[in-house]
């Protein structure tokens, strides 16, 4: 029995790796952008494969963008398991839309994905990569982009909008000089001179008293 089990394990086919999707751009995208997508590692010679912009984990056709928007296309796989379009190109063009499968793609990072699947054979032929639309959860920076305002009042995105306040001093800084505009050290020097003069007048008077 143990020998038979070992034989079964020896001839069992290796598990197929998930397909790999490469896209020309996945972050900072917006509706109307066209990206180039390649898919490798699928089962060879599949005749019906869908590729497009979808909500995460698509299972039904309406979980993805409609084909007439350019957000999804039908294709196949070649003998090497690469996705190919109907005209035989490995470079699929996907035109991004604002919503896919009812999901608002700009709501947050990963709200929509680029997904591929071969209906009826989804297991080894399904994969997806997340999309991040511009304004969909990007970090803020010093000039207030990403949701924060330039005057530092906003806290949108990851930044707090620290920019906008001037780096140089302004007229509101406290005045460290004398009221009439003379430097403080000049007033101090004058006071010392006056005190010294008074002392010189007092010393001779004391000598005359003695």
TrEMBL record:
<comment type="similarity">
    <text>Belongs to the neocarzinostatin family.</text>
</comment>
<keyword id="KW-0472">Membrane</keyword>
<keyword id="KW-0812">Transmembrane</keyword>
<keyword id="KW-0572">Peptidoglycan-anchor</keyword>
<keyword id="KW-1133">Transmembrane helix</keyword>
<keyword id="KW-0134">Cell wall</keyword>
<dbReference type="Pfam" id="PF00960">
    <property type="entry name" value="Neocarzinostat"/>
</dbReference>
<keyword id="KW-0929">Antimicrobial</keyword>
<keyword id="KW-0964">Secreted</keyword>
<keyword id="KW-0238">DNA-binding</keyword>
<keyword id="KW-0044">Antibiotic</keyword>
<feature type="domain" description="Gram-positive cocci surface proteins LPxTG">
    <location>
        <begin position="173"/>
        <end position="210"/>
    </location>
</feature>
<dbReference type="InterPro" id="IPR027273">
    <property type="entry name" value="Neocarzinostatin-like"/>
</dbReference>
<feature type="region of interest" description="Disordered">
    <location>
        <begin position="123"/>
        <end position="178"/>
    </location>
</feature>
<keyword id="KW-1015">Disulfide bond</keyword>
<keyword id="KW-0732">Signal</keyword>
<dbReference type="InterPro" id="IPR019931">
    <property type="entry name" value="LPXTG_anchor"/>
</dbReference>
<dbReference type="GO" id="GO:0003677">
    <property type="term" value="F:DNA binding"/>
</dbReference>
<dbReference type="InterPro" id="IPR002186">
    <property type="entry name" value="Neocarzinostatin_fam"/>
</dbReference>
<dbReference type="GO" id="GO:0042742">
    <property type="term" value="P:defense response to bacterium"/>
</dbReference>
<feature type="compositionally biased region" description="Gly residues">
    <location>
        <begin position="134"/>
        <end position="171"/>
    </location>
</feature>
<feature type="signal peptide">
    <location>
        <begin position="1"/>
        <end position="17"/>
    </location>
</feature>
<feature type="transmembrane region" description="Helical">
    <location>
        <begin position="182"/>
        <end position="203"/>
    </location>
</feature>
<protein>
    <submittedName>
        <fullName>LPXTG-motif cell wall-anchored protein</fullName>
    </submittedName>
</protein>
């Amino acid at each position: 029995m143990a020998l038979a089990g070992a034989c079964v394990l020896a001839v069992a086919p290796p598990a197929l790796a998930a397909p790999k999707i490469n896209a020309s751009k996945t972050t900072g995208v917006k509706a109307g952008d066209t990206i180039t997508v390649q898919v490798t590692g699928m089962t060879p010679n599949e005749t019906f494969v869908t590729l497009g912009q979808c909500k995460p984990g698509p299972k039904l056709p309406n979980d993805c963008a409609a084909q007439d928007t350019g957000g999804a296309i039908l294709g196949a796989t070649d003998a090497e398991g690469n996705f190919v379009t109907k005209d035989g190109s490995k470079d699929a063009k996907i035109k991004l839309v604002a919503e896919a499968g009812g999901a608002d793609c700009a709501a947050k990072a990963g709200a929509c994905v680029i997904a591929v699947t071969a209906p009826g054979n989804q297991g080894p032929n399904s994969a997806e990569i997340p999309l991040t639309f511009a304004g969909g959860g990007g970090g803020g920076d010093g000039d207030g982009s990403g949701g924060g305002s330039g005057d530092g009042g906003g806290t949108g995105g990851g930044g707090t909008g620290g920019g906008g306040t001037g780096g140089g001093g302004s007229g509101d800084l406290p005045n460290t000089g004398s009221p009439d505009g003379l430097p403080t050290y000049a007033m101090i020097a004058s006071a010392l001179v006056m005190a010294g003069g008074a002392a010189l007048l007092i010393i001779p008077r004391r000598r005359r008293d003695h």
